[in-house]
Amino acid sequence: MAVFHADLAARSVPRYTSYPTAAEFTETVGAAEHRAALDALRPSDKISLYLHIPYCHEICWYCGCNTGAVGRASRLDAYVDTLVAEIGLVAERTKGSVSHVHFGGGSPNALSPEQFERVAAAVRNGFRVQPDAEWAAELDPRHLDADFCRMLAANGVSRVSLGAQTFDLGIQAKINRLQPFRMVARCVEDLRRAGIAHINLDLMYGLPGQTLDTIARTITLARDLAPDRVAMFGYAHLPRMLPRQRMIEDSQLPDAHARFWQSILARDLWLEEGFRPIGFDHYARPDDKLALAAGNGTLRRNFQGFTDDDADAVIGLGASSISLFPGLITQTEKHVGRYRMKVQNGRLGTVRGIRRSPDDQQRGAVIERLLCDGRVDLVELGWSPTAAAQAMADTESGLAPMEERGLIRRHDTGLVILPDGEPYARLAAVAFDTFRTAGGDRFSKAV
């Protein structure tokens, strides 16, 4: 039986989609460092591409992504021109083969079918894409039709993620995302009819007005769609950083206690459906590649969340996109106008990032394995026995209080997250983060 610890559940902690996190990025890293990392890639390296489309037809108030309203159609034409140019700039100096291509946003289906096809063709023509590469796209059901689904399939897209969030119309109104269940069900039918077999659903807890009953009803409807994977994200309310979230009344948000039990209920219901838990907020059918990766210890974590993507580097393309290399993380200019100006002048749009020291890489590996596997042994990841033992014995790290509450079990060189501790996994990860301790309000709540 899960146990609610108010002081832990309400803490602010990173989601650790990278280490160091984006909060540590500085402008001391830029295009020169990015170019050097690209040039250092070897022909044998596997590469994952992430293409960011920073536009949506309507802006949802809960959203923390870098996106804006489409407005004039010419904005999309200009953006696609720039993205295609950037693909050319990066591809000409990139060795290695592409194993994954992921379109994210925003809403990639804010593009027209012709615009999407143009970007996909630029990827195929510029990079060495493996014949069995997985192509995936995040989609907004409110603006998805059968023609777009057929175009995706014709361009090799085999997996999509549909942003559903909740099927309660009252909550949808509170977050400015009206999409009745029948609309999402029609999209699923159109996708499968087009030949796209792998469908993921993105759902949320902690939304304004959300209760255990509305969570249960949403999951009951969601299971009828027979998704392969489900992400159950906790809403991160950060109105000081995200002005659009000021449209959501603080008083309507579930408190830490309610959020905790919403997350536990969602977990229990998906487990009853036979899904396998993946990390702290994903679920997958036992035969899905994500579940298989979790079972054999090859699950990874990056800016797309938990993934079976085992690429040696992730190259981000588009405004605000992030690239991950073993010794470097970089981010492209967020402002679309400035991004366009840089790329159209033949330059990479990189404006900030961080060099990953050997210590950063070791700590990042510990955090990744802890969140992916629920256990970690520091010596197996290259720590000396002395350093590992010191880390495990450090009573200031926050691990001791977690152990006293029965949330983790420490041993000489590592730790295991116990069943009651699974909701608090990110708090265990903080113990290995030299940049911060759990606290403040810059990140999402621990649960």
Description of the structure:
- Helices cover 36% and strands 22% of the residues.
- The two termini are 16 Å apart.
- The chain has 15 helices and 19 strands.
- By secondary structure, the chain is of the alpha/beta class.
The side-by-side strand order for the widest beta sheet comes to 9-10-8-7-6-5-4-1-13
Mean pLDDT across all residues, rounded? 95
- Termini, distance in Å? 16 Å
Instruction: Provide the structure class.
Output: alpha/beta
The share of residues in extended strands comes to 15-25%
Quickly list its features:
447 residues, alpha/beta, nine-stranded mixed β-sheet, 15 helices, 19 strands
SSE topology:
Elements: H1 6-9, H2 31-39, E1 46-53, E2 55-56, E3 68-69, H3 73-91, E4 97-105, H4 113-126, E5 129-139, H5 146-154, E6 157-165, H6 169-174, H7 181-194, E7 198-205, H8 212-224, E8 229-234, H9 256-272, E9 276-278, E10 282-284, H10 289-296, E11 300-302, E12 305-307, E13 313-317, E14 322-325, E15 328-332, H11 336-344, E16 350-355, H12 358-373, E17 375-377, H13 385-393, H14 399-404, E18 408-411, E19 414-417, H15 425-430
Parallel strand pairs: 1-4, 1-13, 2-3, 4-5, 5-6, 6-7, 7-8
Antiparallel strand pairs: 8-10, 9-10, 11-12, 14-15, 15-16, 17-19, 18-19
Helix pairs in contact: 3-4, 3-11, 5-7, 8-9
